[in-house]
Design goal:
With 442 residues, this protein is α+β, with helices and mostly antiparallel strands. Helix content is 33%, strand content 15%. The chain has helices spanning 17-36, 41-49, 112-119, 122-140, 155-170, 178-181, 188-193, 196-205, 224-236, 303-311, 331-341, 412-420, 423-433; strands spanning 3-4, 72-74, 80-82, 96-97, 102-103, 238-239, 243-252, 261-262, 270-279, 285-290, 321-324, 344-348, 371-376, 379-384, 392-396. Strand 11 (321-324), helix 11 (331-341) and strand 12 form a beta-alpha-beta unit.
Length: 442
């Protein structure tokens, strides 16, 4: 089954843009010589100079204003663009997705618990039971011998504990204290499953790793193995549609955590930052990486570039598109993802990127609801002016034309971005509606 994502153009400007311009000039030089005698020499020199681009290297100095010769634009670092739209042909191969989306192991799913067990496997549960019993044994010495609620746990009880947490989340009772949950005025199901004091004891002893062999240099070590197993199950269980979204999620938490962050634009403000890749259509979380500060990126590359490459590993070579915001997007990332990973991107780009031509930046002289386009190889840059002295700049390796919606006056690239950018935000909102988190400082 073949899905055609976008009707565009398979041809693009030559990768070596400067050589292309020089070749064009050499081919047209003979025509200029034939007509040179018909006009004054000085006039012809001026006319000829209009066809010659500045062929100096990217390290040479140049003016801050846009260098434009016959549709050629340059960024502040010398990156070359063309305002000419590439010739339209068939749908580019980079926009053809042949992978069928959907659940990979749906045959074993009959009930909700079956779907849950695919992601939360018995192996993960056994890890939790083993390390929780280790903590129970360590804390047991603090209690009198024979204390009824101090004893090792098992698979049945851990499943019951998780079930109570899910019930609290479904009833939107995460804000309730344990006393309120188990009170006589509360739902009977909590008191029917286990005593309140045993519930509190298990939550206190719940552990996810071997405390004695913990890697002290890894801040995420207390839950890393369980996390990686869970994310692997999420990735293996589902094949995403043609478009995915990469964005950040903030898990609200104000307790003790060495990598807790503050994001003022998020509802929770304080918490643990997780960068996710979700399906833009179904909002399924395909992969996620926690942000733990400097140790997040073990390579020498920028953190956004590292995160995008790691999150998208499961879809490399599939020609899918990734929508992202300006914290991730850059010209080097767009080129590398297309050339080596066979993935296209669409994303907003910050105005301080030196590849952007100065004419694309905000200006009071730009008419409202107008768009500017630039092309370089398989990159498309667009600058849209929604209000006076404002510009929204996006880059795309999926689009290769100047299509603009006649009604909204917005470029097709911006409308596509708006329709796919909410994958992670919607997933975050759905998770917040039925959160199973408990108030804790640990």
């Amino acid at each position: 089954m073949t899905a055609l994502r976008h009707t565009g153009c398979d041809s693009a400007l030559d990768p070596d843009f400067e050589k292309t311009v020089l070749q064009w000039y050499n081919d047209s030089e003979s025509d200029v010589d034939d007509n040179f005698a018909e006009s004054d020499g000085e006039d012809k020199v001026e006319e000829l100079s209009e066809h010659i681009d500045d062929t100096s290297s990217e390290d040479d100095e140049f003016e801050e204003r846009p260098l434009q010769r016959d549709g050629i634009l340059k960024g502040k670092n010398g990156f070359a663009w063309s305002s000419r739209e590439p010739a339209k042909t068939r749908t580019p191969s980079r926009n053809i997705v042949v992978k069928v989306p959907g659940i990979k192991n749906a045959r074993v799913v009959i009930r909700e618990i079956d779907a849950w067990a695919i992601l939360f496997t018995p192996t993960i549960l056994n890890e939790i039971i083993t390390h929780t019993n280790e903590e129970i044994e360590r804390q047991g010495v603090k209690y009198q011998p024979g204390t009824k609620y101090v004893h090792p746990t098992d698979n049945v009880e851990i499943n019951a504990l998780l079930g109570l947490l899910y019930i609290a989340g479904a009833r939107k009772g995460a804000h309730l204290s344990v006393q309120q949950m188990f009170s006589s005025q509360g739902p009977q199901i909590y008191r029917c499953i286990m005593p309140e004091i045993r519930f509190k004891f298990l939550l206190n002893c719940l552990r996810f790793d071997d405390k004695e062999k913990r890697n002290r240099e890894d801040k995420f070590s207390p839950i890393r193995q369980i996390w990686e197993d869970f994310i692997e199950n999420c990735t293996k269980s589902y094949s995403p549609h043609c478009y995915v979204t990469i964005d950040e999620q903030l898990l609200g938490f104000r307790g003790k955590c060495p990598f807790r962050v503050y994001i003022g634009s998020k509802p929770d403000k304080y918490g643990i930052k997780v960068v996710c890749m979700c399906d833009s259509r179904t909002y399924y979380m395909i992969s996620a990486i926690p942000y733990i500060g400097k140790n997040t990126n073990p390579t020498n590359k920028s953190v956004p570039m590292y995160l995008v490459k790691e999150l998208s590993k499961s879809i490399h070579g599939t020609n899918r598109n990734i929508t992202m915001d300006n914290w991730f997007t850059s010209v080097p990332l767009a080129k590398e993802m297309l050339s080596s990973k066979d993935l296209t991107i669409v994303g907003t780009i910050r105005h301080n990127k030196r590849e952007i031509p100065p004419s694309f930046l905000p200006s009071k002289n730009k008419p409202v609801l107008t768009s500017e386009f630039a092309f370089s190889d398989k990159l498309t840059l667009v600058s849209f002016t929604p209000k006076r002295n404002q510009s929204v700049i996006l880059i795309s390796t999926m689009h290769a034309d100047k299509n603009v919606n006649e009604v909204s006056k917005k470029p097709e690239i911006i409308e596509f971005y708006n329709s796919t950018k909410g994958g992670v935000d919607t997933f975050d909102q759905m998770a917040h509606n039925y959160t199973v988190s408990r108030k804790t400082r640990r």
